[in-house]
Amino acid sequence: MATSIADQVPIAEGLFTWPSNDPRLIGSRCNNCGTVTFPAQSSCPACSGFDTDNIELERRGTLWTYTLQCFLPNRPPYEGPETPETFKPFAVGYVELPDQTRVQTRIKTEDVEKLHVGMEMELVVEKYIERDGKDVVAYFFQPIDELE
Amino acid sequence: MDVAIIGIGIHPFGRTDGVTGLEQGVDAARKALDDAGLSWQDMQFAYGGTGAAEKPDTMVSKLGLTGLQFINVSNGCATGGSALQSAYMAIKSGMFDLGVAVGFDKHPRGAFTVDPEGSGLGKWYGDIGMALTPQFFGMKIQRYMHEFGITEETLARVAVKNFKNGSMNENAWRREAFSFEDVITSPMVASPLRKYMFCSPAEGGCAMILCRADKAHEYTKNPVYLKAALVKTRNFGSFEVFSQNQALERADSPTVQASKAAFEMAGIGPEDVDVAQLQDTESGAEIMHMSENGFCGDGEQEEWLANGWTEIDGKLPVNTDGGCIANGEPIGASGLRQVYEIALQLRGGAGQRQVPNDPKVGYTHVYGAPGLSGVTILTT
Fold this sequence. Notes:
The complex is a heterodimer.
Chain A: E1 9-10, E2 26-30, E3 36-37, E4 52-56, E5 60-69, E6 90-97, E7 101-107, E8 120-131, E9 134-143, H1 144-147
Parallel strand pairs in A: 1-9, 7-9
Antiparallel strand pairs in A: 2-3, 2-4, 5-6, 5-8, 6-7, 8-9
Chain B: E1 3-14, H1 21-36, E2 45-49, H2 60-63, E3 69-73, H3 79-92, E4 98-106, H4 123-127, H5 133-148, H6 152-166, H7 180-184, E5 188-190, E6 193-194, E7 203-212, E8 224-233, E9 245-246, H8 254-266, E10 275-278, H9 283-292, H10 301-306, H11 323-327, H12 334-347, E11 361-368, E12 372-379
Helix pairs in contact in B: 3-12, 6-9
């Protein structure tokens, strides 16, 4: 039986709106120069100002670049669920959100071979691992043609 | 005040079991002193760099407790280059006449393990598997290939060249030449980059003795002059390792900034350079750094590599000692190794891998986490 989203904990506070049926990444916008940053921060890396407001980022964007992580990362810091026997290469990339920024993300896909620069992607927040008996959710982007 | 390099020393790179990183640094320092005909007792200052090994200033207990100014340097992958740059400034300022820059390291086997929180990132970043430097290099060259039509074959050619050069270098770690086929069929690590296109963390030590240029001939008949040495960090908008986001508008990389400033400082241009060492964490990095350092336009690397223009007998030999790909990357020593190789080439002492026609101008470029570049320009 699926766990209620109220029982699922985010991998970090403040990365995305949660609990939510329509989660969004949380970034910040500088009130001086308009630069958008992810994750949200209280100072601006572009103009050195420190007047920013948190904003919800776009859910859809395009894949700007990516790579396949082909070996099991060292633990720590990695906490993914794979074992050396079950590990399969996973994709990481940057998704360009219109007029905002490019966010670094794990990519969820049924077929890593089909990934290509420019493909349309959408945010998904879902279970990543279990920790202390609870489901931990993380953000991913997934090709929209797999969602429709 | 101009600055000269009057002595160079290196401890072989790779894996030296039973010898600490510090001992490799001491060995390199002794060799550099011998090369200059000087003693540790003559040194007025030292800058010592390491990322993962013992504190550099503890080497005075082996070399001599003389009371000299000794400053430890730790600056990511540009640690060795930063030690040299600091020594350069110490002499250029007029405060000292004679000193040493030394660097060494001894990294554990396997990929670098990153502590996300120690790098100013959230713990979650490591939890979900993004705190890995190979991913950055894969993503940067993937985008570059998309924009400028670089092919996988060109990536392989860089690695083949560097292994070939390493096979002629008695101090290199990887001394076996690999074929194009070996490289392009090796296992994928971070697509599009394969195992034999990457360097690995390693061990090694390197040292240089520097002095005021007007005194160089008191010590050696073949000084090499440092015409520029500087380090730049990332500007907002450049695409760097461990960027959780990137601005939509790209800015020049720290390499572009460092290269322009160094050429301006030296009063020459890329066309004047006879031999170059460019950061080759992996083959894609060497390709992009050819352009970022001003040696060719974006996309022209296809033609350069296909024609062998960066081979030892080409129009601009690059990574004549095998680069990071054949030497591995002990970050405390890597930038100094590049300068060691250029000094050797300009002195005409590179043996089997000597660049023909008496090279007179050399160039080094180191790049690394968290987004900094160190460039030097050297002349005879």
